[in-house]
Amino acid sequence: MSAVLQKLKRFKLRALHNQKKFGVAGRNCEEVLRKGCLHLQLPVPGSTLCLYEDGTEVTGDYFWSVPDDSELVLLTAGQTWQGYVSDISRFLSVFQEPHAELIQAARQLLSDERAPLRQKLLADLLGTVSENIAAETRAEDAPWFEGLESRFRNKSGYLRYSCESRIRSYLREQGGDPADRRPSAGQAVEGTGARGALGVTSGASLVVTEAREEYLRVVGAMCQKLQAARYNSSYFDRGAKAGRRLCTPEGWFSCQGPFDVDDCASRHSINPYSNRESRVLFSTWNLDHVGLIRREGLLSTT
């Protein structure tokens, strides 16, 4: 055992949030820690060593279980390290508000990269950090409005229209959209009010006779409530109050999973305010894999 204790163990050491590593050797944990603090000009009291890969603290007998040339992180009092997770978290925080220099560096990496997987990761990253999420008006983000009518002057206004159109289409499937109630010239209207709606009577024809009266009453009441609520168009408006929108103040929508589970295991998310591609993709998006907007827009009004 004494021979083992005399053997020097080699490590690669670095300080927290410092990518530069240096070699250090010692016969015990205290010696490695002392040499590391001296090299990095850090105080020994309160400092500790941990594994880079998972943040496990290196102390006592565990020192001899760590393979030679393992990478260690030297922490001073109050600092923590959770392994790779800490690096990922730091990476994400850097790209939360990316600078032009950072984007340029990523583009340079992409131009030199040949591995397909790394190319895709870099391309996706660049696409994300280059999004103009904060912009709201046509003047601020003209590409976002490409293909839209000139009457849409801001993103929130268009997405309110988009939400209303979706809910009206769902209602139309039930035969209840007031827009379908206008008869053509010379065509008689059956009954009055909601019961006289051509669309509603068309939908009612699929309901058994005994339930038809109640069906027409429910659909008529639903139409009135949706009209009063402007078809819940605020659901897609990031500027609406928290209780009236389905997204964050920045415009992020998160999938809530199928109706029979509590959450979406895949953590799908999308921001239609970010760029034209996301806006177009969002038009095909269901927030629960099936039809959250349909349930929220129609059932919540009853």
UniProtKB/TrEMBL annotation:
The keyword Transcription does not apply. GO terms for cellular component: cytoplasm; nucleus. GO terms for molecular function: DNA endonuclease activity; hydrolase activity. One of its GO terms (biological process) is apoptotic DNA fragmentation. Keywords: Apoptosis, Cytoplasm, Hydrolase, Nuclease, Nucleus. It is found in: Cytoplasm; Nucleus. Its main location: cytoplasm. It holds the Pfam family CIDE-N. It comes from the Eukaryota. The keyword Cytoplasm applies. Residues 7-83 form the CIDE-N domain. Coiled coil: none annotated. Heterodimer of DFFA and DFFB. Interacts with H1-1. PANTHER family: CASPASE-ACTIVATED DNASE. Nuclease that induces DNA fragmentation and chromatin condensation during apoptosis. Degrades naked DNA and induces apoptotic morphology. This is DNA fragmentation factor subunit beta. It comes from Tursiops truncatus.
